[in-house]
Automatic annotation (TrEMBL):
Keywords assigned: ATP-binding, Nucleotide-binding, Transport
SUPFAM superfamilies registered for this protein in UniProt: P-loop containing nucleoside triphosphate hydrolases
Family per record: Belongs to the ABC transporter superfamily.
Recorded superkingdom: Bacteria
Limits of the ABC transporter domain: 2-232
The species this protein was found in: Metabacillus endolithicus
GO MF annotation terms: ATP binding
Keyword flag Membrane: no
UniProt-recorded name of the protein: ABC transporter ATP-binding protein
Pfam families the UniProt entry points to: ABC_tran
Length: 232
């Protein structure tokens, strides 16, 4: 469960001595229950990425509280956040962010290597997951030898390999054509149903919003509409 309570964030901009506080998120409150898909929608500049960066601990709120799985993470330091992210979060990005010099297998394996999982166990887990996302035959391909949809599958596998309870996604289908987008949305939906993973997805796109249980609308940093539960 992600509990966002009266969260506000301001950026300080300008030269030292003449800095200004720019309020970007204002008193935002909502909950996302475990196993739900939530989308955050809103115009460019409405504060969506700032909200995702707060939920993932890359920036700290100016006011308010953030509680994730009953842990009050609001005042976590960087070390606490790093540990928390590795145990609970997976990330998916619009531009995939795969490492070009690593194969499909090695990109997905990397988080396990960082966690110190022994090689035979890594191999088994990576191959099982590549099978799961339909990429086992592409294990030795490099990112530039894959289509956009296949690259996004690799990045989804990489996000899943540490068995996170929550996946945070920033425009995960933003650079895909419509047909590929629908395939990736099917994959997200089935991972949500089969593994009970919570998804929190930033999007501009109605197709993505259609697979979500909750839609949160941000307008100039304020939650203008938020989240009646929808069965999908
Ligand atoms: N590091 C920063 N310093 C100062 N202002 C910032 C910073 N990051 C974002 N902003 C401002 O905060 C506001 C919200 O930005 P944010 O990136 O959260 O919007 P967004 O809804 O994700 O937009 P988009 O859909 O274009 O990605 C914008 O006015 C932006 O200029």
């Amino acid at each position: 469960m992600i509990e966002v309570k009266n969260l506000s964030h301001s950026f300080r901009v300008g030269k030292k001595g003449t800095e200004k506080e720019i309020p970007v998120l204002k008193n935002v409150t909502f909950n996302i229950k475990q196993g739900e898909i939530a989308t955050i929608v809103g115009r460019s500049g409405s504060g969506k990425s700032t909200l995702l960066n707060l939920i993932s601990g890359y920036i700290s709120p100016t006011e308010g509280e953030l509680i994730i799985h009953e842990n009050n993470v609001t005042n976590f330091n960087e070390k606490e956040w790093a540990k928390f992210r590795l145990s609970h979060f997976g990330f998916i990005f619009q531009s995939f962010q795969l490492i070009p010099s690593l194969t499909t297998f090695e990109n997905v394996e990397l988080p396990l290597t960082l966690k110190g999982v022994p090689s035979p166990e890594r191999k088994k887990q990576v191959m099982d997951l590549l099978q799961n996302v339909g990429l086992h035959e592409h294990a030795s391909h490099y990112p530039n030898e894959l289509s956009g949809g296949q690259q996004q599958r690799v990045s989804i596998a990489r996000a899943l390999i540490t068995k996170p309870s929550i996946i945070l996604a920033d425009e995960p289908t933003g650079s895909l054509d419509t047909e590929t987008e629908l395939e990736i949305l099917d994959l997200i939906r089935s991972l949500n149903l089969e593994k009970g993973i919570t998804f929190c997805i930033i999007t501009h796109d109605d197709e993505v919003a259609k697979i979500s249980n909750h839609q949160f609308h941000l307008q100039d940093g304020v939650l203008s509409k938020g989240g009646a539960f929808v069965e999908v």
